[in-house]
Amino acid sequence: MTEDARATTVLLVGAMMVRLALTGAYAKYVRTGMGGVLLAAGILLVALGLAGVARALGFVRSRGDAHGHGHGHGDRAGWLLLGPVLALLLVTPPALGSFGVGRSAAVDVSSGGRTFDPLPAGRTVPMTLLEFDERAADHGGASFGATPVRLTGFVTPASDRTGFRIARYQIACCAADAVAAVVRVTGTTGNTPARDQWVTVTGTFQRSADGVPELRATSLGEITAPRDPYE
Amino acid sequence: MPPVPTPASSPEAPPADAAASGRRPRGAGLPLVTALIVAAVVLRPVLTGLLGHPAVANWATVFVAITIQALPFLVLGVAVSASIAAFVPPGLIARLLPKRPALAVPAAAVAGAALPGCECGSVPVAARLVSIGVTPAAALAFLLSAPAINPVVLVSTAVAFPGRPAMVLARFLASLAASVVMGLLWIALGRDDLIKPRRPHDAGDGPRLAVFLSTAQHDFLQAGGFLVIGAGTAATLQTLVPRTIVDSVAGTGPLSLLVLGVLAVVVALCSEADAFVAAGLKQFSLTARLAFLVVGPMVDVKLFALQAGTFGTRFAWRFSLATFAVAVACAGLVGWWLL
Q1: Do B4 and A92 touch (CB under 8 A)?
Q2: What ipTM was assigned to the predicted interfaces of this complex?
Q3: Which residue of chain A comes nearest to B64, CA vs CA?
Q4: Residues of chain A with pLDDT under 50
Q5: Which residues fall in a coiled-coil region (chain A) (predicted)?
Q6: Burial track B93-110 (b if 16+ CB lie within 10 A, e otherwise)
């Protein structure tokens, strides 16, 4: 790579990271807490790239620059960094969808063997799919009582006789380590929403014969994908 | 599908470069930006159509996710590496380590605890250590131990395995033991000539800031390029091989250690996150899951690409295979003792 190609590549990668961090689009790929880290790393890379551009243009001259550059070998692999940059600029890969639900490892619902407090009665409790599954695994779902809960997830295909399933991924670091929590929804009328459609369902927990945590729905609404698609 | 931003909506990069490179006829910056714009026009409909296939979309998401997740750690590793090149007097680190390689190896392995990050960051640092004259065995022990025993990784392991502090201790001990064993093995059997020599440019002179900047740029591009290869490989394997395949071989025997060891190589998780996945692999014994946690930070497809790019392919094959065997053995022994 020539000197200004290297500087340009570093600058492009840095700009991509800054943009991902500032627009919040990064939440499709890594966990939300990493925004600040991405921003910091992106700013460092932009600075590094700008310094390289300044040097390539001849604004800055120093003895150390005079030799050792321009040998293409050794950093030829650097061109490959344009791959993810292009992918993000051109198509923006979507958040993980139902394709991987049946293929990922099972979510850990034991929550360290803890016993959940009963849900407060008299109001609808919003809940993650993971917590729903964990509560369902704890003493057969005793902590639910009759309290209605509200879940948000995307529709994932299954061959159930009744109802349909929704899922949502938990990620610890990035989408590569995603595991899905799955809940079956029954009691809805009308057509089942399309695969990968995001929905919000309200209903009550119900024991199922096959062990898949089940929600008996009283209302179902289709929504657009949330900003942070993971739990 | 969310609205797709056009290249022009990334205001920071292309205009600055287009303007910058325009004044310099010989450089590659202008052709690069031109190529990007042409690619945007030509490829976008094709790629958008491809993403209609769920498997392709899954691949693209995992590929981008692994790259994005690893880049901050790579930046940290590159910054440390470039700082050593620019600001640490030559020979200082080699002098700080014990003279005898057999003592330098454990010292370097323990020093790995001081680099908080995942495996991508430790490769450029280890390469830098070799290039400034640290005995390769010690640098390799550092390379293996740093991503596994630093406090961030140990804390995330403790969080992923609530009520099982033995798991944290076992991970620490097995990883440290595997690193030291590999360092000592390298002294006994290794051939330093397998490690690709660094380019003379790395011994750069001149103002320190200039050395820092050019080293950082060089290391970032080299490691980053191979990171992209590794991320692509891991995404391909994750998309083609369903993780549920490991369910069919669940068990407690030595086979399960190997299976989870291979799984760790294939899925190439960040060492700060792998404990959460291991916690979910409930059908396996704790010892088998320990093998997953010990192998993952030391050998995986992403790391292999980074090592091959940094030290050479011949080195990476031998080193990765030996490390895999040693890591599984250490996990088995420590697991049998503690878990």
Answers
A1: yes
A2: 0.89
A3: A84
A4: 62-73
A5: none
A6: beeebeeebeebbbbbbb
Tell me the pLDDT tens digit for each residue of A65-116.
Answer: 444 444 444 567 888 888 888 888 778 888 888 888 877 766 777 766 678 8
What does the block give as tokens for B10? 């990334």
Contact B47 A41 (CB under 8 A): no
Assess contact for A149 and A128: CB atoms under 8 A.
no
Placement of tokens 């996945």 in the chain: B277
CA dihedral in degrees (B275, B277, B283, B284; nearest 10)? -40
Who's near A190: CB < 8 A, 6+ residues apart?
none
**Interchain CB distance below 8 Å, B32 and A225:** no
Contact B17 A53 (CB under 8 A): yes
Asked if residue B304 has pLDDT above 60, the reply is: yes
CB contact under 8 A, A173 and B33: no
User: Taking CB atoms and an 8 Å cutoff, what residues of chain B touch A37?
Assistant: 72
C-alpha torsion angle, residues A72, A75, A80, A84 (rounded to 10): -130
Domains along the sequence of chain A with CATH? 3-93 (no CATH), 99-223 (2.40.50.140)
Say yes or no to pLDDT of B20 above 60. no
**Nearest-CA distance from B204 to chain A in Å?**
6
Nearest-Cα residue of chain B relative to residue A100: B58
- Locate the chain B residue with the closest alpha carbon to A33: B69
